[in-house]
Amino acid sequence: MENLIKTSQRLVNMVQMTTFRYLYDKINWNDRLILIKGARGVGKTTLLLQHIKDAFGPTGTALYASCDNLWFTDNKIVDLVQYHYDHGGTHLYLDEIHRYNGNWQQELKNVYDSYPDYHVAFTGSSIIHLDSALADLSRRCLPYQLYGLSFREYLNFEKIANLKPITLEELLLSNHKYEWEIINNLPSKVLPLFKRYISKGYYPFYPHKDLGEYYGRIERLLDTSINRDIPTVENIEYETLYKISRLLYVMATEVPFTLNVQTLSQKIQVSRNTIIRMFDLLDKGAIIRCIYSGWRSPKSVVKPAKILFDNTDIMAALSNVNDVGTIRETFIASMLAPNHIIYEPPTGDFLIDEKYLLEIGGKRKTFKQVADIPNSYVVADDEETCIGNKLPLWIFGFLY
To answer: Which CATH superfamily does the domain covering 2-146 fall into?
Structure first.
């Protein structure tokens, strides 16, 4: 227990307090039970440590512990809570709950019910879910999802500009007001800054790595997510995990990647249903993004209409050659995902919230494919500013 406390004190003392993620101020830290989900490497641990340092300092009333710590080999969460509570503790911050070797949902429910003045915040993989059938934790817990750095946050982390996010409605309906406000507050041209971000800027650990090290860490994160995180949540065989990695390799090396379930099932040597399950697991693990066309037909929600990687940095880490059109779509989807629902429409590239239609392309992209469709917009790469319903690609990086 003493080593656990010392580790908490050391990590809290060392955490940087100069830059905070977009989610930090959105969390209601006063709630008694908080879940923060997210992919590996997006900054969940830092978020917890910053809040402890900011709200409690060295008082000892708040304690951080990672659930893969060896202390939990012979001890339970409830043991830690009881000790901490008896010694004046009021807040516990648990990291990587999915690595806990026990029924964490039941234990946290017991803590919630037995210690009405005690607070627990915990982080977990994107793939975990609150199973109401096991412990009914879902109605007690307030969940949040942390995504990687937006272009806006990247500029803040680089100390280039500290600008506010804009909503999708503001972006689409403001007649380009925000484009000029952003451009006028940047010390240099926006397009070179955006090019720097698009392949090395999504994960907050980018500043301390050269390009090769950065991509290498992303590959290790993906490997850990597949081979360690998924098995903690899903009952899955080793052979299937190997074939998930194989599927990821096929997706990365076929440029541009075209979704054909029958062809993939033959290459990976698994059934069509297994391929669909693999897609679902990789999507929940924030490695790929499944886009469905099921906004009108319930039958079409079974098989994805389009598969993208979760973000452009994963694309760059896994392959030296990527289709520019897929890069654009991947960026747009990753920036829209935190606050919007994305569908594959009959015409155009993305239908957002069943309302806004986006056609994405280069600077010469026209309205030919979406002409006369209400609420349709062209999103153009390599454009600093646009006019009318034509929007520059980079500005979608300011949505959070």
So the answer is: P-loop containing nucleotide triphosphate hydrolases (3.40.50.300)
Q: How many CB atoms lie within 10 A of CB 373?
A: 14
Q: Residue ranges of the domains in the chain?
A: 2-146, 151-398
pTM here is 0.92
Over the stretch 127-144, which tens digit does the pLDDT of each residue have? 887 754 455 777 788 889
58 pLDDT band (50/70/90 cuts)? confident
Task: Name the nearest CA neighbour of 227 among 211, 209, 246.
Answer: 246
Quickly count: other Cβ atoms within 10 Å of residue 344's Cβ: 18
- Cα–Cα distance measured from residue 105 to residue 122, given in angstroms and rounded to the nearest whole number: 11
| C-alpha torsion sign, points 52, 54, 57, 59 | negative
Q: How far apart, in Å, are the Cα atoms of 371 and each of 113, 173, 358, 366, 368?
A: 57, 18, 12, 9, 5
Give every CB contact of residue 330 below 8 A, 6+ residues apart in sequence.
289, 308, 309, 310, 311, 312, 315
Q: Are the C-beta atoms of 251 and 243 separated by less than 8 Å?
A: no
